[in-house]
């Protein structure tokens, strides 16, 4: 065991046993949900709490006669990328399904509002049979400008996949989001729930029947921003698994069993995020196999166990790294998306283990459900400030948090403070300024520190300073759980 790895185990264990100041998980939960209001596109409602944001992109889709107004900007830019947006909604819905009862009525309602803002848009993006709108906005034009969403004058071109130019990953992820969300709304809005589920079935059928990657059909526009690196097979199985959970229809279980062989689990069993669904599929399916005919526990439970063993710092088969301060690290930018998503899976799987009265063996290491919860909590606490920098990586939480996040709307003066338009070039002055952002994007979790636990707080360092909808989505569930445990 390397020195750093050994230190990591000690630090993670120390953090997990409560030797750090406890956090106000309820306050962090409130803020993590509020963040989505800062990412809204379209006509803002009277209940809008992040008031420096105003209406934007009110004519999206109008040039082609389709209403594509609404939805979310994915991160610090002003493009609507449907693939990561749909994944964010799937994870918000999963957070509510697992931990909604721990949120409290007001935060549960806010979560439903955040989900519906996304699902209303996904219904629009799939409203024309045979087409799925995968993106709105020219990403190159947008990324070359530093503009408030309220001022945008870059092209708002809509891009769609179709029967001739398929995009199974984006379509199947939408199906997953709509199916998961249909369950969230079932207790309170049966009509809306039924509408979401009907569309989920239709979009999944489209994704499956016209198979292909949107890299091939929309590559020049979706890449390099949200290329699909893992293929679309994982999204098809992920979508089917969510439809199985929502409908209990044997068709979807048979689909999962027939197609699981198409997944390469040899190296991807530990991957989970907007692009790669493998670990999520195994954790979700391990919950669904009981009561299915035929009852087939493999390969789901074996691979879910292997995933756990790949994350626990003391495991002989650990494949992630840990910073000296105990943060889970995987290669690639925006690392906290991995820390939140993988911690969420640990928490969900720990509940399955508890119900089955089961432990996991990683070589000579035995992990009980409480250990998975410990590791998940160590990541949550690290993000909220129990780290060597003594800073929270959630904007507006704690005394010390990122001030210069890579986010156009947050870094430019709001319309209420500066009513004149700020054009593409003029915005660059604010981008390169050393001043803190004038507008607080409350609840935004940034990409996070590097592997040495350091954080530069630089707007230009987008890999570390940019917030995204898919960092926050699993974090909502984690915070809901720890708020009441």
TrEMBL record:
It is an enzyme of class 3 (hydrolase). InterPro entries: 6-hairpin_glycosidase_sf, 6hp_glycosidase-like_sf, Glyco_hydro_9, Glyco_hydro_9_Asp/Glu_AS, Glyco_hydro_9_His_AS. It holds the Pfam family Glyco_hydro_9. The active site is at residues 406, 457, 466. Its EC number is 3.2.1.4. GO terms for molecular function: cellulase activity. One of its GO terms (biological process) is cellulose catabolic process. Keywords: Carbohydrate metabolism, Cellulose degradation, Glycosidase, Hydrolase, Polysaccharide degradation, Signal. Residues 1-21 form the signal peptide. It catalyses: Endohydrolysis of (1->4)-beta-D-glucosidic linkages in cellulose, lichenin and cereal beta-D-glucans. Residues 25-479 form the Glycoside hydrolase family domain. It comes from the Eukaryota. Belongs to the glycosyl hydrolase 9 (cellulase E) family. This is Endoglucanase. It comes from Hibiscus trionum (Flower of an hour).
């Amino acid at each position: 065991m390397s020195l750093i790895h050994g230190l990591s185990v000690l630090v993670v264990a120390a953090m997990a046993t409560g030797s750090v100041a406890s956090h106000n998980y309820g306050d962090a939960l409130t803020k993590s949900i509020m963040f989505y209001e800062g990412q809204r596109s379209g006509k803002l409602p009277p209940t809008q709490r992040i008031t420096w944001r105003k209406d934007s992109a009110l004519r999206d889709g109008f040039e082609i006669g389709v209403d594509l107004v609404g939805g979310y900007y994915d991160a610090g830019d002003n493009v609507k990328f449907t693939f990561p947006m749909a994944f964010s909604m799937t994870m918000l819905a999963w957070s509510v399904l697992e931990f909604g009862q721990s949120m409290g009525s007001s935060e549960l309602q806010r979560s439903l509002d955040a989900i519906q803002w996304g699902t209303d848009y996904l219904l629009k993006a799939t409203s024309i049979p045979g087409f799925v709108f995968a993106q709105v906005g020219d990403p190159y034009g947008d990324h070359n400008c530093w503009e408030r969403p309220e001022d945008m004058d870059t092209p708002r071109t809509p891009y769609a996949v179709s029967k001739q130019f398929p995009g199974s990953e984006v379509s199947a992820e939408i199906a997953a989001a709509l199916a998961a969300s249909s369950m969230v709304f079932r207790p309170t809005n049966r009509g809306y729930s039924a509408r979401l589920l009907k569309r989920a079935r239709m979009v999944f059928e489209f994704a499956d029947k016209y198979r292909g990657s949107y890299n091939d059909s929309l590559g020049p526009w979706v890449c390099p921003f949200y290329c699909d690196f893992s293929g679309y097979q994982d999204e098809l199985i992920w979508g089917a698994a969510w439809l199985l959970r929502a409908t209990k229809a044997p068709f979807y279980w048979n689909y999962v069993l027939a197609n699981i062989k198409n997944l390469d689990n040899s190296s991807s069993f530990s991957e989970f995020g907007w692009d790669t669904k493998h670990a999520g599929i195994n954790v979700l399916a391990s919950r669904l196999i009981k009561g299915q005919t035929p009852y087939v526990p493999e390969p789901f439970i074996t691979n879910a166990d292997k995933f756990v063993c790949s994350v626990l710092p003391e495991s002989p088969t650990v494949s992630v790294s840990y910073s000296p301060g105990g943060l889970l690290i995987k290669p690639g930018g925006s690392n906290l998306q991995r820390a939140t998503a993988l911690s969420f899976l640990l928490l969900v799987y720990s509940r399955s283990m508890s119900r089955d009265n089961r432990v996991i063996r990683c070589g000579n290491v035995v992990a009980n459900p409480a250990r998975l919860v410990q590791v998940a909590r160590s990541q949550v606490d690290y993000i909220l400030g129990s780290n060597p920098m003594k800073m929270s990586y959630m904007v507006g939480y704690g005394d010390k948090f990122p001030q210069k996040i890579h986010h156009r709307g947050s870094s430019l003066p709001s319309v209420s403070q500066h009513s004149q338009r700020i054009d593409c070039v003029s915005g660059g002055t604010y981008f390169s300024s050393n001043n803190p952002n004038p507008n607080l994007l409350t609840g935004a979790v940034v990409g996070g520190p590097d592997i040495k636990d350091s954080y530069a707080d630089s707007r230009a360092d987008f890999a570390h300073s940019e917030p995204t909808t898919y960092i926050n989505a699993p974090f909502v569930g984690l915070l809901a759980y720890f708020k009441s445990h």
